[in-house]
Write a structure and sequence with these properties.
Layout lengths: L3 H10 L3 H10 L16 H7 L3 H9 L31 H7 L3 H10 L14 H5 L27 H8 L14 H7 L3 H9 L21 H36 L18 H18 L20
Helix pairs in contact: 1-2, 3-4, 3-5, 4-6, 5-6, 6-8, 9-10, 10-11
InterPro entries: Ankyrin_rpt (IPR002110), Ankyrin_rpt-contain_sf (IPR036770)
Keywords: ANK repeat, Repeat
Protein name: Ankyrin
Length: 312
Amino acid sequence: MSRVDLSIRQAILLNDVALVRRLLKHHPEHLHNPDFADKSNTSLHLAAQHGLTEIAELLVSLGHDSTREVTDWIYSNQGDNLGISVNTDGRTPLHLAAASSQSPVVELLCKHFPQTVNRPDYQGQTPLHLASCSQGAAIVPSYADQNSRPTTRTGEDNNTIDILIAYGADVNARDDQGNTCLHNATAWGNLKAVRALMQAGADPLRKNKAGWTPEYYSITVQAEVYYRNLVAEWEKRKAEEAARANDRRARAAAAAGGGGAVRLVPQEPESDDDDESAASRSRASSARSQQTTSSHSDAGLGITVGNVDTWK
């Protein structure tokens, strides 16, 4: 007598949608079907890890996982299994899909379960942390037969990174060691990921808890040189953006000052008794103005200096 749980896993690895559908129709209690010998990975974990998009779509349509937030997920045949599937590493199906760069499944899971995009595992690593590493081909479990054809990733595939960023992944997220996604990318030598992350706003000078920036984890001299060049470009771009921001502020200040126009302050009418004193004040003011105009201009900013002596 065959075991239903193994039959379902084999059908998933065979990417046989019809067979999976038929098995789950007769055994709906095995929808999640966690493999306790493999970190309690569920059916959706398995499909995500191997890039089986149609299987993943079927499982989601049948109610595998939901948008309800949970802090822990423990499977029970009799219990309430709603929520997000989390294995013994604290990783969701999105984590496994990202780690293997299965971009179609990553996009599917981001769309259905956006709350998992920045969810950390038990080591504080988000799906983007895992996508930033160069991973090898997914390991096929021992119960899979020789006809299994799981999809594998291609080297330095940035589609997964682009999708996660598009769905709001934090490029500067830190894990429990303070490592950012750039730390992972440089440590694994994924230079395309380094460029993609920096273009998305990742800080290349951010240090981890050990006090090291991503540059110090470059695995080769060539990678280190490449990283330094990217940092130089990043610093140049930041300087240019700061200069443009300053220019915009200066223009805004000039516009707020009236564009160089002179602001006339209305004076209160003076009585006839004050005519002589007013004329005297006017002559004194005119004399001071003639003495200082050549050396103390307001550059058309509409600034009035009350006492010129303070500028000397």
